[in-house]
Amino acid sequence: MFGQFKKPGDMKKVKNLLSKYPLLGSLMFLLASAAFFTLKSPMNRSGKNIFISWDNCVSILQSSAGISIGAFAMTLVLVSGGLDLSAGATIGLTGAVAGHLMYFEHMTWYVAFIAALLTGILVGVLNSILIVELKLPPFLATLGMAGILTGLAYLISTGSLIPIKDPTFLAIFGYKRVAGFPVLAIWTLVFLAFFYVVIRRTKLGRRAQAVGGNETTAVNSGVNIRQVKYSAYCLMGMAAAIVSMTIGGRLQSAIPTNGSGYELQFIIAAVLGGTGFAGTGGNVFGTLLGSLVLAVFSNGLNLLGINSYLIQILQGIVIIAAIVSAFAYSKKKT
Known about the structure:
mainly alpha; two-stranded antiparallel ribbon
């Protein structure tokens, strides 16, 4: 099977294979990481491997939930030719809004939840106005928006931790299990199905791919660019609000920095899942695979007791490799 890669042109063949099947590289990396961490994992007091224990697998599913949900939405944004660097700040803001309403205003969890969702959607509208109406590049528009949202989150929370104690909220968005299965993983499956339908089975998804592939051609074909971009960024804002709930449920608190760095994880999970930057990809199952890659990698390094700063360096290397791969894949498709 692997004998074909022992000749002088081996590396070129491998490169072409990975370029043709971008998910293959992510799957290989996931399997290799899982095998490595299984071999190197410490044992618990019962002499069982910690990495492959059910509790650790549940921990991986819980930590990957937030990444997956946001990454599904980011997949749609990337497919439409956009980019959202304000997603992490949106998480911080919506979490602060929900936490403030529950803790200081003594409102019920569902009122706080709805307020957070509306806040996230509003952020999507504002991003769309900057990008569609004012013609700002998505990178600059959402980067500037991120600064505004972070400042608002600090104002609402007064820069301090807001405890979240509502038992119903914690049960829905926290560590509760249903028949041994983490509730956060159920949220992941719900949004996996939702964004699969949106991207693959609706006009919005098809039009988003047309816009991302060639906006001029899409306009000439009668595609409503404004509708596509507004929808994509509003769904991103909504997803970021959901992610903030899952983080708040796990940490039982809301902090302005809760979403710090999540926007990059969303992008990389989508890229690892085969989504490019020119209307290519859009496979949410691939995005889920990318999210698991990030979660397994981070979990395994933490179990091995690797220095947190070194973990950041290693994650940065993975990010660069993923982006290089995505650009190569997008170039091949165009």
